[in-house]
Amino acid sequence: MRTHRLIPYSEEFLILTCPTTRTNYAKLDAACGVVVNGFRYYHPLMRFSKEAGKPVKVRYEPFDMSRAYAFVDGQWLTCAEDALLQVQGRSEREWGLILDEWREQQRVHQRKRVGIDSARLAAFLEDLLTEEALLSQQQRDLEGVAIREAIVGPTNRASLEASDSDLEMDDELDLTTLPTLEEYR
């Protein structure tokens, strides 16, 4: 007889199932945090860490690029992105489309590589919101939100800061109520 193991959907399990960077590590700067995929993420406990200047394990949320996780001083910290308003709610694929469009615009205007600061990015995003590729990716991401919320429960900024004891999730999930969607690509 084969024994089975029930793995609860705890916050640590969800963090460990998130993707990581190519190297699995990022250097911790006590004042600025960690850089994951070109974004700077920070948590207040990083300022007092003993691991400052050393590489730490990192993970990021592929469906919301405003959150990343860093394993600092024996615990996973939920870090927020510096340019939170630009990336909050945007998926990794959507952000890739935005950067591709930015690079194409720079190439068309024959400009040398221009750094993206928050003012330029905000103006560019306003123009880009009407683009069809971006809107279709947003729609695909929103279709997956209902499924993720049915499994994990709704996530918002307040629930991320709450302790595990404050979170209550249903033990049973009715799979018949979930919509059938196409494969995520």
From TrEMBL:
Name of the protein in question: Transposase-like Mu C-terminal domain-containing protein
InterPro entries, per database record: Transposase-like_Mu_C
Chain ranges of the Transposase-like Mu C-terminal domain: 32-77
Pfam families: Mu-transpos_C (PF09299)
Species in which this protein is naturally found: Ktedonospora formicarum
